[in-house]
Amino acid sequence: MVTSGNREQLQMAAMVASVGAVSGSDVTVFLSMNALKFFVKDSSEKAPAEGEMGALLEDKNAPDFMELFGQAVEYGDAKIFPCSMAVDILGVKQDELKSFVSEPLGLTAFLSDASEGQVWHF
Amino acid sequence: MSERKLVDAKNTFCPGPLMELIGQMKMAEIGDELEILSTDQGSANDIPEWINKVGHEMVESFEKEGVWHIVVKKTK
């Protein structure tokens, strides 16, 4: 569950999702709140750093979090769902989101999917 | 005929080198060896963990002049 719009949280979520997915775990990412807008296609908005580490991530050429989310899907069959409420509030359609993002998912369905797994919140 | 492919992932950080390796592994044939170069010690520790977990064959791992070389054989 990814709700933060800051770079450190998005980076950590992307790392866990990508490494988990390529290591044999079933990974489902649920995007909501301030995280969703960065997944709009052609969005040039950069996630602001919350602290020193966020600035260093960019200076030191850490992998881009969006690329890692894409690799989680491409290499590890992760599923990335936008929260249907956040999609409605933001006023975006599925085809306006990055191509690796699946169709909007409601909270009930996500909670049902997640009930037998570990839930990590970023 | 198997071959060894070099994957240069220097100057990025975990999990960048692992992801580059996996991308190249997808395109490799079974029996091929891939040698990944990384300047990130975290990746040098983490990539062998991944190889063991997923079940490929770890061929060798060594450091030379600040660059880690990890050689893996694709087994499936």
Describe this structure in words.
- The complex is a heterodimer of chains A (122) and B (76).
- Chain A is mostly helical and 122 residues long.
- Chain A has a single domain, classed as 3-Layer(aba) Sandwich (Hypothetical Protein Ychn, Chain: A), CATH 3.40.1260.10.
- Chain A has helices at 7-22, 52-59, 65-76, 84-90, 107-114; strands spanning 28-31, 79-82.
- Chain A has a two-stranded parallel ribbon with strand order 1-2.
- In chain A, helix 1 (7-22) packs parallel to helix 3.
- The longest helix of chain A has 16 residues, at 7-22.
- Chain A is globular, with a radius of gyration of 14 Å.
- The mean pLDDT of chain A is 96.
- By secondary structure, chain B is α+β, with helices and mostly antiparallel strands.
- Chain B has one domain: TusA-like domain (Translation Initiation Factor IF3, 2-Layer Sandwich), CATH 3.30.110.
- Helices cover 34% and strands 34% of the residues of chain B.
- The radius of gyration of chain B is 11 Å and the shape is globular.
- The model of chain B has no long low-confidence stretch (mean pLDDT 94).
- The chains are: A mainly alpha (122), B alpha+beta (76).
- The interface between A and B is medium-sized, with 14 and 15 residues.
